[in-house]
Structure prediction request, 138 residues.
Amino acid sequence: MSQPADDSAKKIIIDEDWKAQVEREKEVAAQQSPPGAAPSAQAESAESEFPPATLSFLVTSLAMQAMMSMGLMPNPITGKNDVNLAQARHFIDTVEMLEAKTKGNRTAEEEQVLDSLLYELRMAFVAVSEHQPRSTSP
Prediction:
């Protein structure tokens, strides 16, 4: 392959200082916003999408999973009320484990949430179990 006679006509200029330019632009932007300024609206909306991480929220989330597994509420993905008692038992056991592991370190509200949810889950599990067909083993 032959080289063109005029090398100056086809020069590629590479700006190797682009990273430094980006850093300067970031510094200028940071100086223009007042210190302690509120985060952007996009960052605020991303943070406000989720409730605070609390024991009550975790236990309630697990209870909802258990209720779905018992067929007491539809699965949001399938829209069906499927029963999976082994899975429901696992979620109830997980809530019981959290109750045991957090004993002596809960607020009165957390105590009440745990007590009432566990009672409701246990009673629902018994009721659903009684209405499920028994498997017959040879």
About this structure: Helices lie at 18-32, 41-48, 55-69, 85-101, 108-130.
